[in-house]
Amino acid sequence: VVLCLLNHAFVLYVLVSSDGGTEPSALVDDNGSEEDFSYEDLCQASPRYLQPGGEQLAINELISDGNVVCAEALWDHVTMDDQELGFKAGDVIQVLEASNKDWWWGRSEDKEAWFPASFVRGYIRQCRKHTGMFTIAQLATIFGNIEDIYKFQRKFLKDLEKQYNKEEPHLSEIGSCFLQNQEGFAIYSEYCNNHPGACLELANLMKQGKYRHFFEACRLLQQMIDIAIDGFLLTPVQKICKYPLQLAELLKYTTQEHGDYSNIKAAYEAMKNVACLINERKRKLESIDKIARWQVSIVGWEGLDILDRSSELIHSGELTKITKQGKSQQRTFFLFDHQLVSCKKDLLRRDMLYYKGRLDMDEMELVDLGDGRDKDCNLSVKNAFKLVSRTTEEVYLFCAKKQEDKARWLQACADERRRVQEDKEMGMEISENQKKLAMLNAQKAGHGKSKGYNRCPVAPPHQGLHPIHQRHITMPTSVPQQQVFGLAEPKRKSSLFWHTFNRLTPFRK
């Protein structure tokens, strides 16, 4: 029977012959060999799972019964002490005694000594070893950049420990640690954006019993608390949001005369900005999925994808475009960051849109026009404004139906410029892979549906937009995404026929 036991720092193997005797255990490194056991092999061999807290007792019982227990080191251990074993990751150590939870007595290369058994271990290494169960792409989706976060947090913890005053904790000065590591916290953004995809991938895997057993075995054998893997993967998302709350509480009980007061106050603002940036990136990532679906719904799209330059729909509505020849063209315009897209409605199917062109807003200058004759176009206009190209000096003239509509468009154009500048200052970028994935998903979702089916996003009603750190609304994760989209859809007006019918009905019992 093969017993595979995992503790925090080692993979333990025990080989027991059928007659009760023991055989030397043959172990391999991560590259594998002909004697390496797969997870399925271990399951067929009835592996022994340990309950939390019982690992040392179980190992000592195995040793007492005459079994050979070996440990495969996961990390290097360098020591100058003769009473300690030195080893490298992958080395095999025979465990002779494990009564102490922190130090075990073992043999390696004819030397017996103590070695540490308290290293940290997680799921990801075991997943990488089982290439038959997990692809590289699946591991990237599930775990994201969690190893980068772990490395960053180890450094951050050391900085905090250096600034902590053990003798007089109230004199500790930790504010500078947050300020020095402010840019490092930005790596949480990638992890938080990846987290919904990780949950989806895990949910698909958990439909199969072997994956449920695998992850539960990892948790039990590593003495981890009773939380499923998706709960552990949620922890970084929760922690990054708690820093501003913890710093606010610390600032509340820190006097202004304290030497760390100014740094704590600055750290509080810095971590609020970090959380704001993460929320903004998450919001934009959700936005690009809707924008991608919108583009797929447009008939006759030409040129680059809208996501190549844009990630947010700012305003939309109908305007009359006046050509150089003085002709009027009724168009539906969609204002994104960096781009203004023009579409034409189908004469019969008003929900079908045809692509008619776009303007680069980075090259345009907005000019408000008063009612009357415009000198450049030599036309009488009302509720009009124009966009003038800075490079070619070409003029694009637009007229709104009402003065209120014109005001909304002028405000939207100003908002577009401000948001572009904010994104630049905050380093707000969506990766090329995320853009391609959004377009690919949109194309798959639109495949097989009637051509021109309109799923365009509804332009939000104009509101005075607040600074970027004040205008984020986080939708509860418990609300299904279909319901979230539905909240933005306007209610249909009641039919005029039924309104008239009810008004004329003589009986209203």
From TrEMBL:
Q: Where is the DH domain?
A: 141-281
Q: What are the PH domain coordinates in residue numbering?
A: 312-418
Q: What is its main location?
A: cytoplasm
InterPro entries reported for this sequence: DBL_dom_sf (IPR035899), DH_dom (IPR000219), PH-like_dom_sf (IPR011993), PH_domain (IPR001849), SH3-like_dom_sf (IPR036028), SH3_domain (IPR001452), SOS1_NGEF_PH (IPR055251)
SUPFAM superfamilies (alphabetical)? DBL homology domain (DH-domain) (SSF48065), PH domain-like (SSF50729), SH3-domain (SSF50044)
The yes or no answer to whether the keyword Magnesium is present is no
Q: Which UniProt keywords apply?
A: Cytoplasm, Guanine-nucleotide releasing factor, SH3 domain, Signal
> What's the name of the protein?
Spermatogenesis associated 13
- Give the species this sequence originates from: Gorilla gorilla gorilla
